[in-house]
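User: Please run a holo structure prediction.
Assistant: Happy to. Please share the sequence and the ligand.
User: Here you go; the ligand is beta-D-mannopyranose.
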Amino acid sequence: MVRFRRDILKRWERNPIIKLEDIPFRCNTVFNGAATKFNDQYIFLLRVEDLKGHSVILKAHSEDGYHFTVGKEPCMYPCDIEPYKTYEERGVEDPRIIYLEGIYYIMYTAYSRYGARIALAKTEDFEHYERIAIVSEPGNKDGLLFPRKINGRYVRLDRPISGGIGNIWISYSKDLIFWGHSKLVAEIRRDFWDSYRIGGSVPPIETEQGWLEIYHGVKMTNSGPIYRLGVFLLDLENPEKMLGQSDIPILSPREPYERIGDVNNVVFSCGAIVEENGDIKVYYGAADTCICVAEGTVKELVEFCLEEKSLF
Ligand code: BMA
């Protein structure tokens, strides 16, 4: 019998890496989070949903990327100063960290009765966090900053709902606050695993062949949505240009901790760490209930975007 891995990424055998029991205060679930390296440590900003159903952000740190120590209290709460007060009333969700020009920027979802908006904060030390602005109209989320300017402009991917469809768009800014010149970059694919909705997950990773984007795709089924992770590659100097996209996912929910939780059948990433040898640790929320890691190499993910299309 031929033996092969079901998924392109390989799960850490001791997943989950952070569970509800690790959180030192009363809360509902812990899931999606952002990752970076700072002072030789892995820093993880994770999303914790409180018992009211609103999310806060909590810092965890680790020496090896697998064993994390979780902070005693959240580092970002919904803010009580306007305009954040209105637009974060239901929580701060799904952070992504981008190191850009010497600053760690945090793009996150501000969530309120008016829906989702992308918000931007920054930190230089992961002790003090400063909000910069709300940087999108309502109905937009999954904001991912590119880690450098391209042709003199800041660039981001985002996920507006337009025409009732969630696709991945790109937009540009001169100051990180006002964004425009938006264009469609990646679309849902009819009859595929990402046919219902897609959104960027991990901030774009620069490689020699292009910007590697790990995104999430959703298929709607009779028993609800299934969230999986996939990859595509964008041109380095013209990131509106798609160079390749894999037909099949790199990670699908299979393990019990990915199948069963507050939202069943979800693997959802907001961050990854690329090691010096080219290995990549992709952190993901599983079933909106715990945090896990799966690994691969950047090289194989890039090749996967470019290789002959195959469903097997
Ligand atoms: C998305 C986001 C994620 C969540 C996922 C599955 O729309 O809200 O935070 O993990 O749905 O519930």
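Residues 31-32, 93-94, 227, 263, 266, 268, 285, 288 surround beta-D-mannopyranose (CB under 6 Å).
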